[in-house]
Design a protein that fits this description.
The complex is a heterodimer of chains A (322) and B (283). Chain A has two domains: 71 residues; 246 residues, MetI-like fold. Chain A is 72% helix and 1% strand. Chain A is built from 14 helices and two strands; from the N terminus they run ααααββαααααααααα. Chain B has 283 residues and is α/β, with parallel strands linked by helices. In chain B, the strands form two sheets. In chain B, strands 1, 2, 3, 4, 6, 7, 8, 9 and 11 form a nine-stranded mixed β-sheet that branches. A two-stranded parallel ribbon of chain B has the order 5-10. The chains are: A mainly alpha (322), B alpha/beta (283). The interface between A and B is medium-sized, with 30 and 32 residues.
Amino acid sequence: MQLESSAQRPIIGTGASELGGSIKAGSGKKFDRKNRLLIYNRFFKIACIASAVFVCLVLFSILFFMFRTGVLTFQDVSPMTFFFSTDWSPENESYGAFVFIFGTFALTLLTLVISVPLSVIIAVFLAEVAPKWLRNILRPVLDLLVGIPSVVYGFLGLTILIPLLRDLTGTNMGDGILAAAIVLTIMVLPTISRISDDAISVVPRKYRDASYALGATRFQTIFKVIVPAARSGIMYAVILGMARAIGETMAVVMVIGNTPQLADALFKPTSVLTSNIVMQIANVPFDSTWNNALYMMGFLLLIISLLMIVLVRMFQRKGAQQ
Amino acid sequence: MKLFKSLSVAAMAIALVTSSVSVAGASSSLSGKIVINGSSALLPLTLQAASEFKKLNPKVKISASAAGSVTGPQSVRKGIADIGACDWDASMDVPGFKKFDGQVANKVAIIPFAAVVNKNVGVNDLSTKQLQDIFSGKVTNWKDVGGSDADIILVNRAFGSGTRVNFQMKALQGADFLSKGSNYKEVKSSGDMKTAIETTPNAIGYIDLVYVTSNMKAMQINGVAPTEANVVNGTYKVWAYGNFMTKGQPTGAVKAFIEYIQSTKFQNGSLKKLKFIPLSAIK
């Protein structure tokens, strides 16, 4: 069947069937080379599509299951209470998650305020200032830093950073949003600076030459020409760093204090979405509103990180157009 | 680490002893599968008992895991597990958790707890009333309980922790915990509690007696030091039974397994080595 149909087809075929077209039909057996190729091609195509479908399926089923359990929260709690009340005491039936939502955004913002300027300066140093041998050492070092497990950062934060903060500022505890932001900064610094470094490195040489030709100093060239030219790449790096900061759990849970109160001071123990979920999920009764509320918080985290990825895509496209 | 070491040493010793025993006594006809879930504090005990029990009854399969105390009785209710390890008696109401109807608590061990403070704290002894005041936030400075002038840093376990439930029932006699404040924080596990108390000056918290190290100070409560001897002679009251919850009275392999844990041989052998206190120690 197959042999006949492909023999009748004109030689200029389309897609996968095109590949076997130039090969002679040989002895005409069912399994000659041409047919084998056709089958392999088709099979490979199906395998590729199946893999792609599988990935999408996984993503959507995660979203679906988180949402399905999470949305049950609103049977017992009004969305207004869940999103805007600051009273989280599940043992007394109050499920206000605003503390955690606010905490997540405040922590991410604070992390970015500290880490972005630092990372950009590191990136500029790597791409523009450092001699080649130093660059060749520093780049692999930063790549290695990305791979350190977050619990290690958390432990160092707990045993070194917090006592240090306590000594420096004279506070009683040191736990809080500042300690968490510093730990996260150390974690995202390599990510942001390495990707920014790549973005700065690919700025065309003619931009620099033109800038110098106009009499600009090195400082002016870097901050008026090169960094703006690499802007979309740097934004991409920042958003990737931000996504990592938002989703980070283990490092944060060890230094933030885990207390459901609004983070209105740098040194007040507080809690964020991730740390609250991991603190409580092991101890909640199944099928309780509490459990559902934790799922809802997980769903929120997912949505936030999906939005980040959409943003990353937008910046990538913008960068490509330039 | 120390616990892990002693556990593995104990496991090796038991393996050596029982391998010879099981050849002789392998006539057991018990078979079946036992699924155990629940308290992480009881897990070392469960695993040790399981490996010994399997030697004696090769046809019985035991799988044990741990998430948190409350998941034990919940898994039993849902039928996921045959035994739910729980740090409290889940057949009765406790602060924060309703009783689980139709479940039977099988006592397996005695777990003592201690109120612990950072080494810089000058206070050695607290009364129940003082503990209640400190943990409810009424007393916020060490000078009010006989120490130096410094803010009290309260370290608490998260709601739902078995240690928290027991400490609240036994040491605070049911009094409420503080849950907010700038000198208050919660930690996720006994290990985190240990680190927090050791590294935070003026901190107070509570922990299983097994976890108390020389880098922290265990408080006397009402003048009694938290030692195994004082638990046994009945003067130190802050301890609780570790329970295996079952749906109704245990039967078959489950019953045999629980009886094995409660047996004098196991209680005075491996259980003691893991630093739990045998049931028979308290009349």
